[in-house]
């Protein structure tokens, strides 16, 4: 398995977001003109645009996707040396033998990248949005989300077709408290144990018998072209996704106008507004890294924003859910997410927020 997506796959995704016509055109919800692309590209043509990323295969796939999007939108950036990918090792990448909650939780996969951005070592930073804390370091902005991938989780097992088929005492490997709580709420006879590492590592551990099954994000498997490992794709009702799951965010320095203009051309507004809602929900709950929280917002067939969220205890014995419908604007999305989070925090038992 290659560590990052092929150039062909990256360009396929790029072509779905940016266009190659002379006249302005709307593709994937983004209106970009060739003239504006030339203007922005010229502004950065005198220096290399450095793209910061973690070094995992999935993170690299996302960074190469970003690079190919930029090349497709801005032909000038196809010149040799115009774009460079800079790999940065984060705390979360270095410590793999402990649960994330035990080593700090929030910001474990972003802090070193944020530092590199602020110091000028990189110009833009590519993140999996579910790794990004609800606060951003002063001097940075996250103005761009790429088109969101499928948000659902998948069940993978060499012995069972579904969680319901696992026998009592079977071990499900997962480092996610959100997944743990939802699994145990429905299947209290199962055990969930910490299971960290990149996608390839977790699949190897599963095949070696470290556990009977695991759950992974479908988005990551699709970006790595590894969907052949899926046993079953879980519905949203079966497993509510993590806040911002399947979304890629790209940050830059607040005062870097050239990078901000580049990212404006890549931004997928429908994804960004949904992510705004989910992150407002998370911020209002102010849950610790030990609090299982899930939230998903999307644009429904009626054009409205639909949001579902939950908070639970790690053992799944207590769980509260909420939902909202609002107009699909940034202001309404933020208000809906914030209101949903405040509702659960005000009405939920204190035990939900003691972890």
User: Into which percent range does the helicity of residues fall?
Assistant: 25-40%
Count every helix, treating DSSP H or I runs of 4 or more residues as helices.
11
Q: Give me the secondary-structure category.
A: alpha/beta
Succession of helices and strands: HEEHEHEHHEEEEHEHEHEEHHEEEH
Rounded radius of gyration (Å) = 20 Å
Question: What general outline do the C-alpha atoms trace?
Answer: globular
Number of strands: 15
Strand residues, percent: 15-25%
Q: Report how far the terminal alpha carbons are from each other.
A: 38 Å
Low-confidence stretches: 1-17, 19-46
Query: How are the strands of the largest sheet arranged?
Result: 4-3-5-12-6
Largest sheet: number of strands, sense, barrel closure: 5 strands, mixed
Average pLDDT reading:
86
What structural keywords apply?
355 residues; alpha/beta; five-stranded mixed β-sheet; 11 helices; globular; disordered N terminus
Task: Briefly say what this structure is.
It is an enzyme of class 2 (transferase). The protein is an alpha/beta fold and 355 residues long. The chain is built from eleven helices and 15 strands.
Describe the structure.
With 355 residues, the protein is of the alpha/beta class. The chain contains 11 helices and 15 strands. The protein has helices at residues 7-17, 34-44, 57-73, 91-94, 111-119, 177-186, 199-207, 218-223, 257-266, 269-285, 330-347; strands at 25-27, 30-32, 49-53, 83-87, 124-128, 140-145, 153-156, 171-173, 191-193, 213-217, 232-233, 248-253, 293-299, 305-312, 319-326. Strands 4-3-5-12-6 form a 5-stranded mixed sheet, with helices on both faces. Strands 9-8-10-7-11 form a 5-stranded mixed sheet, with helices on both faces. The protein has a 3-stranded antiparallel sheet with strand order 13-14-15. Strand 14 (305-312) and strand 15 (319-326) form a beta hairpin. The chain is globular, with a radius of gyration of 20 Å.
């Amino acid at each position: 398995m290659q560590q990052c997506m092929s150039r062909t796959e990256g360009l396929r995704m790029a072509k779905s977001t940016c266009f190659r016509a002379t006249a302005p055109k709307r593709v994937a919800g983004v209106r970009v003109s060739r003239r504006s692309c030339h203007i922005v590209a010229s502004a950065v043509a005198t220096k290399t645009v450095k793209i910061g990323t973690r070094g995992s295969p999935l993170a690299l796939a996302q960074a190469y996707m970003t690079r190919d999007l930029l090349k497709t939108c801005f032909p000038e950036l196809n010149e040799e040396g115009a774009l460079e990918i800079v790999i940065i090792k984060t705390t979360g990448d270095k410590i793999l033998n402990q649960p994330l909650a035990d080593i700090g939780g929030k910001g474990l996969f972003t802090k070193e990248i944020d530092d590199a951005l602020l110091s000028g070592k990189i110009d833009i930073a590519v993140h999996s949005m579910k790794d990004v804390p609800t606060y951003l370091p002063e001097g940075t902005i996250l103005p761009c989300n790429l088109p969101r991938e499928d948000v659902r989780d998948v069940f993978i097992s060499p012995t069972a077709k579904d969680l319901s088929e696992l026998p009592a005492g079977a071990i499900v490997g997962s480092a996610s408290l959100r997944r743990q709580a939802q699994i145990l709420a429905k299947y209290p006879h199962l055990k969930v144990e910490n299971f960290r590492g990149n996608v390839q590592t977790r699949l190897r551990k599963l095949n070696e018998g470290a556990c009977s099954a695991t759950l992974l994000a479908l988005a990551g498997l699709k970006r790595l072209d590894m969907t052949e490992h899926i046993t079953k794709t879980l519905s949203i009702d079966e497993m509510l996704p993590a806040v911002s799951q399947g979304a890629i965010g790209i940050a830059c320095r607040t005062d870097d106008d050239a990078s901000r203009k580049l990212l404006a051309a890549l931004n997928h507004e429908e994804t960004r507004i949904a992510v705004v809602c989910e992150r407002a929900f998370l911020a209002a709950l102010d849950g610790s890294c030990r609090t299982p929280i899930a939230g998903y917002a999307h644009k429904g067939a009626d054009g409205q924003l639909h949001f579902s969220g939950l908070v639970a205890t790690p053992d799944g014995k207590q769980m509260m859910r909420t939902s909202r419908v609002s107009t699909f604007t940034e202001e309404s999305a933020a208000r809906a997410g914030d209101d949903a989070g405040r509702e659960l925090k005000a009405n939920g038992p204190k035990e939900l927020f003691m972890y």
